[in-house]
Recover the amino acids of this structure.
């Protein structure tokens, strides 16, 4: 098996539980909290969703016995998790990304591959791959998405902000000649995209409608208030890179669906329609939905105009899909398979050089995600650990003052060629689902040799705030100050970072 990345800092583990019973929970106990609280709640919610589906079936429907079997398997999985059972190999279900998990399990001693002892990042990714197998092994539930209903409901509840943003970006398009007279300042769509991360499904367990509208507030006043909670803001550096591009390619590594994806598309549209910097992008099913008046009854004209323009981008190749939208769940998607493995991004050269080569064609790559898990309101279970940001910095316990570039480094890769700049935006508290959005660019440094050796240097991480447990790149004293002034700053969802790693010569 290929040699995988081992960060110099210790990785997070469910064995870290010292502060689990304290409020707020500290960063070291989030992994333990996830196994004890968050994962069991996710399994319980899936059981409830399938039960609702079963109640709609007739007694002789062939889906009925299969649905009951899935519920039984989910209950058994929840029981095994609570009993700290050994992680079992993923059965042969004909889907992609099976061997990567089973090979790793086969090489791991039994005492180290239990739910409370296994590497946390591995266990997180393994759980979702195991859930996929429960449905893939059936005849009538193979393409069933147990999270789809929640996704749609959350997306529909975002209609107010969606309509308003449509009007905003349409206005930018109308005034693009005027905009192009002054590119000195970063434009608001980039900030909107950052805070769009705040609407993650897994974080909305305990949010009411008013909370959601507040999260999705747009406009100068709202963004000015949000800017106060940016602990690191490299947006100007990102904008400077974009201004240096001409008909360039930008890639967005997607973190989620719904409103968050919508803000990705708004940003992509702005870059392609209003600037000379970028000429290509990627998106998902959202576009077709925008043209359905029954889905979003408000702001019909603005949304229709937006939808038509986006479909035009797709037809002309200005928006590009990394994989066809008709790709079945679990299917082998070629280079896209990497995003749903357990590997850190430092493992790309060893585990997926083809994807790395594709990413090296980009001038700028945007990674969005959450820095860690969120402590739920009102003590409701709902902790969320985002794989996207964790994979980016190796799932390691870096000191908060560790330079972002240093956390990206994979020792021994100094001779590896690199692609574009990288931007990492984290709003700590999202579910990374491994989908990739290319906005005229994927992640890496083009033709450069990096002395520090990270295959994906020149990156920006946009992290709008939920959990900043896995944070680095902060100035000295920031974490200590917040520990006193806002003890729940790591988990409240109010803080964010925009981290930029430049292309290296």
């Amino acid at each position: 098996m290929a040699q995988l990345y081992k960060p110099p800092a210790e990785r997070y583990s469910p064995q870290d539980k010292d502060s689990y019973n304290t409020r707020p929970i500290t960063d070291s106990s989030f992994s333990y909290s996830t196994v004890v609280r968050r994962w069991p709640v996710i399994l319980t919610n899936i059981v409830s969703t399938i039960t609702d589906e079963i109640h709609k079936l007739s007694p002789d429907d062939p889906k009925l016995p299969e649905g009951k079997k899935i519920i039984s398997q989910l209950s058994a999985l929840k029981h095994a998790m609570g009993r700290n059972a050994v992680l079992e190999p993923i059965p042969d279900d004909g889907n992609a990304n099976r061997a990567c998990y089973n090979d790793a399990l086969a090489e791991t001693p039994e005492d180290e591959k239990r739910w409370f002892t296994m590497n946390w990042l591995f266990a997180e990714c393994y759980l979702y791959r195991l859930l996929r197998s429960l449905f893939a092994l059936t005849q009538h539930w193979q393409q069933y998405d147990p999270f789809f209903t929640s996704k749609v409901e959350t997306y529909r509840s975002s209609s107010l902000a969606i309509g308003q943003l449509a009007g905003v970006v349409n206005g930018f398009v109308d005034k693009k000649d005027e905009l192009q007279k002054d590119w000195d300042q970063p434009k608001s769509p980039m900030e909107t995209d950052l805070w769009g991360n705040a609407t993650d499904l897994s974080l909305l367990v305990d949010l009411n409608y008013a909370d959601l509208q507040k999260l999705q507030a747009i406009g100068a006043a709202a963004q000015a208030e949000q800017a106060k909670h940016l602990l690191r803001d490299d947006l100007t550096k990102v904008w400077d890179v974009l201004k240096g591009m001409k008909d360039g390619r930008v890639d967005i590594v997607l973190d989620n669906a719904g409103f968050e994806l919508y803000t990705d598309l708004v940003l992509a549209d702005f870059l392609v329609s209003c600037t000379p910097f970028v000429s290509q992008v990627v998106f998902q099913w959202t576009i077709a939905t925008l043209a359905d008046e029954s889905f979003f009854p408000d702001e019909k004209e603005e949304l229709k105009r937006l939808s038509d323009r986006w479909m035009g981008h797709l037809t002309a190749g200005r928006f590009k899909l990394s994989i066809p939208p008709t790709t079945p769940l679990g299917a082998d998607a070629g280079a896209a398979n990497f995003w749903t493995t357990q590997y850190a991004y430092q493992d790309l050269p060893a585990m997926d050089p083809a994807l790395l080569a594709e990413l090296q064609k980009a001038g700028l790559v945007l990674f969005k995600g959450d820095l860690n898990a969120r402590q739920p309101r009102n003590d409701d279970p709902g902790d969320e650990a985002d794989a996207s940001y964790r994979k980016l910095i190796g799932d390691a316990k870096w000191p908060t003052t560790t330079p972002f570039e240093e956390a990206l480094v994979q020792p021994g890769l100094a001779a590896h060629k690199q692609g574009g700049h990288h931007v990492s935006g984290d709003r700590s508290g999202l579910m990374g689902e491994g989908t990739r959005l290319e906005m005229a660019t994927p992640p890496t440094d083009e033709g450069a040799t990096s002395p520090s050796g990270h295959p994906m240097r020149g990156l920006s991480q946009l992290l709008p705030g939920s959990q900043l447990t896995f944070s680095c790149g902060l100035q000295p004293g920031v974490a200590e100050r917040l520990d006193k002034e806002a003890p729940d700053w790591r988990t409240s969802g109010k803080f964010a970072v925009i981290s930029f790693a430049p292309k290296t010569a």
Summary: Residues 154-393+454-501 form one domain. The chain has two domains: 27-144, 154-393+454-501. The mean pLDDT is 75. DSSP finds 19 helices and ten strands in the chain.
